Amino acid sequence: xxxxxxxxxxxxxxxxxxxxxxxxxxxxxxxxxxxxxxxxxxxxxxxxxxxxxxxxxxxxxxxxxxxxxxxxxxxxxxxxxxxxxxxxxxxxxxxxxxxxxxxxxxxxxxxxxxxxxxxxxxxxxxxxxxxxxxxxxxxxxxxxxxxxx
Length: 149
Prior knowledge:
- About 35% of the residues lie in helices and about 40% in strands.
- By secondary structure, the protein is of the alpha+beta class.
- The protein has two domains: about 1-25 and about 120-149; about 30-115, Jelly Rolls (Sandwich), CATH 2.60.120.380.
- The strands form two sheets. A four-stranded antiparallel β-sheet has the order 1-8-3-6, with no helix packed on it. It has a four-stranded antiparallel β-sheet with strand order 2-7-4-5, with no helix packed on it.
- The chain is elongated.
């Protein structure tokens, strides 16, 4: 009897958590970045965003390398910059943007960004599967409780 209540509780908890994250995955999130990259270090930013998502980034430093690839949008091959730059791009279709910044100077590099991200569709399916598993656990626990001899 105790095991069936534990199964029901576990199934409900799993169902609540998966439904919460499922609804959260339908909306876009704003990610604010304020980072310092020390000399001779690099940083890779990878973000998934839906089409028409606006991305803004300001990089302040003396000398740095930068490369950017975005789905159906702005493409910047690896280039060296010697003054601060401000990037703004729009995702023309759903996908992943990859931005690599390497500080090649003796001073710190400051990165400020406002990025609009979303959760990948495959992750959304994962939450649906978790919700279904929660329902199955609840169902088996109730059946076990009802037909106990």
